[in-house]
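In the lab's daily routine, each protein ends up as an entry in a very long ledger. A line of letters takes care of the sequence, but it says nothing directly about the fold. The three-dimensional part falls to structure tokens, numbers that each stand for a local backbone shape. The outcome of that step, for a single protein, is printed below.
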Amino acid sequence: MRLIDFINAGGSITWILVVMNVFGISLILWRVFVLRDFKKKVDSEAKSLASEVSSHYKIKNLLSNMELVKDSISQRVHELEFGMTSIKVIATTAPLLGLLGTVIGIYEAFQVISATGLDDPGKFASGISYALITTIVGLIVAIPHYIAHNYLSGELDSLEVLMEKRMGPLLQGE
């Protein structure tokens, strides 16, 4: 069976999942490249944020400076989180759409059984096939998005810690 035939056999739910997958994978790749680019210039970003904090806030208290630093870093990381919610939504809704397709397919199979009986199993097989295809595609879409969301979240946390480590000495004048 060709891929297009497989997708068509899953109906509109499978097509929705395919579109979600294309959008999500594009978003994941974009976020990976953005984070890698940011990692390369983390030292210059730290210097920039440190000078911004130092020039805007003439506070001598180191604890106050560190609070401002953490706020600045948190804001910068928040900007890097763009798209993460969409990835998470795809990861959580894809299996639900697959489940919806499963229920619809089983329902269709039972409708055929109630109308024609069990004499010809081929008559209700399309409903079962629909159910299985949507379940498969829902999981195929969800699993990589779930993994990518967790990976990218971990990378963002690591970047936040790295920025704090790099900015500390800069603010202390080391």
